[in-house]
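re the bet — no i am not wrong, look at it urself. input seq straight from the record:
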Amino acid sequence: QLQLVESGGGLVQPGGSLRLSCAGSGFTLDGYAVSWFRQVPGKEREGAACVSSSGLSTNYGHFVEGRFTISRDNAKNTVSLQMNSLKPDDTAVYYCAAAEPRYGTTWCPMFDLGMDYRGKGTLVTVSS
């Protein structure tokens, strides 16, 4: 079964850090653009970060403000999201999704449209 599996969520205090991981199961993430989205109940899903299939392009949501870093480790078949200086407003379910590079190897999708695979999400709670 082809799927994405997220891990690394949890409870963290404001100002703390978490590292989320997205693993490909049954397929290799190498060759896919991978994105992290987040969603709060009652709000639209928004793009947090993305990395192109080549790894040469990355992009971040406006709210990131230099606090997050996305990276891919093809040897481990994972894409990670390092989140620092977390704020209570970062509380959300974080999802990863993967897409074939239909617009080129530097394409970096920041909208959850037409993605080929999606994980079930991992909850991040930022609270004191």
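see?? The longest strand covers residues 18-25. told u. also The chain has no helices and eleven strands. so pay up
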